[in-house]
Here is the input.
Amino acid sequence: MTTVLDPIAASPDIEIHDQFRRRRSTRAYSDRPIDEATRRRLFEAARWAASSSNEQPWRFIYASKENPEEFARLLETLAEGNKAWAKDAPLLVLAIAKRHKGEDGGPENRHAAYDLGQSVATLTLQALHEGIYARQLGGFSADKAREALEVPEGYDPVAVIVLGYPGDPANLPELVREKESAPRVRKPLSDIVFRGRFGQPLEG
Here is the structure.
């Protein structure tokens, strides 16, 4: 059984900080640009994420509409369905995980993707503080991104983050607009949190 949430702000079963209620992955963006100072704050937040052994395996390549050629290059790596709305956002970011520890091809860092996720989460929350919404995409070609953005061996493109100020969902293509207005859903805690061993129910 899933919990149906309000499509704009989450309606959690337990009181949580408002930033988690307001965070959502929108597809509707305005054409308002994200200025350089704001971009730097987003990446500064990402820089201070928790990291296993302080390896900091995250790397980011951004492309803004201020440079149409760079923006088009990263946009082209997206799946066609994502291009239809991501083209309206002012900023795209390729999130990359450094596969190995150290600087000279050390042992594999099995926490690299986990740490990258933490870094992106902090970026996302800083963005929300700035009034900016983020949608994180797995629907892109890592091979195209590697070639087009010259990502070296040992670094894995993991996701593309679409960032921008919220726009009018009425401007989205019809199918995308329907998805945008669909209720948000989350599994109940009893499906994802266990006590003592896997599958053992929560107390209370």
